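Work package 3, deliverable 3.1, input record:
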Amino acid sequence: MTSSGLNQLLGADLYFKCEHLQKVGAFKARGAANAVLQLPAGTDLVATHSSGNHGAALAWAAAEQGLRCKVVMPENAPQVKKSAVAAYGAEIVFCEPTLQARESTLEALVQTSGAHVVPPFDDARIIAGQGTVVPEIVAQCRERGFAPDLIVAPVGGGGLLAGVGLAVSALAPDMKVLGAEPAGADDAQRSFRSGVRVTEQVPNTIADGLRTTLGERNFLLIRDHVNDVVTVTEDAIRQALEYLWQRTKQFVEPSAAVGLAAVMAHPARFRNKRVVVVLTGGNMDIGAAAKLVAGSL
Amino acid sequence: MTSSGLNQLLGADLYFKCEHLQKVGAFKARGAANAVLQLPAGTDLVATHSSGNHGAALAWAAAEQGLRCKVVMPENAPQVKKSAVAAYGAEIVFCEPTLQARESTLEALVQTSGAHVVPPFDDARIIAGQGTVVPEIVAQCRERGFAPDLIVAPVGGGGLLAGVGLAVSALAPDMKVLGAEPAGADDAQRSFRSGVRVTEQVPNTIADGLRTTLGERNFLLIRDHVNDVVTVTEDAIRQALEYLWQRTKQFVEPSAAVGLAAVMAHPARFRNKRVVVVLTGGNMDIGAAAKLVAGSL
């Protein structure tokens, strides 16, 4: 999708890759499908932990293959994401909203049920799956007669950004890849710039999909295949979100606005460029959207 | 656009025609463009009255042709619609929020400026222009290997519904056409069923684009070329709007949800049918959306 109004405002040619229109409303369907399609023979139960979209994606991919699925979710996950996991027939196991609680709850679940774990991002199958967005982008742009100058993708755990970086290196090495991250969850930028993966952070951002810490495989791939990681303020995310709702009429979630926020916050890097911005997901509580507008979230 | 979740829920195959992604964010761009492209030679100023989308559409179409444009708008028009008219370079002339005030203000403006009036709906060029959505629908469905059973379009002044009825009669006479209207602005249904155009009503609906009274040309065409007009409650509009936001991720305005509301309110009429639902526009104040969610609008 494109918006001539936004292009005029920002002095760049933006092409939105609409992963919020993907199955389960997020790019996470790609990685989950890729993982489920290559499970060890005989697997009949998969499990994961997720603040939401990966959980729904795994629930969907498992249901498509006739497998059972359990998803460990923090109690404070958005209602719309809990409902989606349940709607695909997976069982939700609630835990405290910390990475440690998620991991220990998942570990206990595996011990008792023998479930095969499909992690949300630090997994080669997931990273490769998320990277499948790149051949689509390249082909869709080629159909329209151009090659993009760069791709901007949000980074949380780093599954998407690592997959995009890897796929771009292989398929379109002239294209630059930029990660975009909330300043309130800037572990990827600090990791990228220091060369050492930052594992301690207390995320503080409305972009609930990006509150996770960068994975290890993800860090190594991002370090080697991504050109830079930039951060954006919460105000910039809010404004980008409003632009996406009002100008493109796409009801995306806050995490999905972080790429456009990066373009708006760093205009000189994008001026007169052909920029693909990945809109990562659209699973948004209406109530939460109203609170965002009122500035109370 | 399609949503397998909505199809499952409603037992019908819905195909959304996304006029909110049209230029100026509404189907009104079609009629305005058609009118402006056939103005009398020498016209350099056009004018209209509009609660919003037609005003923006005429402003856009005029600007595209290098013409000046004045738009009479009620003071209570949504801010986002006022901003759009201004952004396309038209001059806004405010009036009281009644049809009479709009018409007398426009009449006075024509007297002093000599502007050529392009009415919002009761105009052959506008009706024909709005009807251009039909050949697109027919072609897009044919590409996907099917012919729709019916088209559902909201009706306010009746420009879209009359144009759709007329074009369907000419191009796809086997297809049924259904108008959908808020119960709080049901002049089209009363006119259709009684055979006499109802000209008195005090509209009461959140669907601000449908508060206008059915035009005369529009009534005659709808009477002859439309199969039925159904009404929906405000609650149904609200629920359809939430479905559109959450399931299809399309941030449409309340008027655009009236077609889906009709499908939800009258399921037996649509079961197992291939139904094209026209999403008419997406020009929605974020603040108004928040109020809608809170139930205070």
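Residues 28-121 of chain A form a domain with the Rossmann fold fold (CATH 3.40.50.1100).
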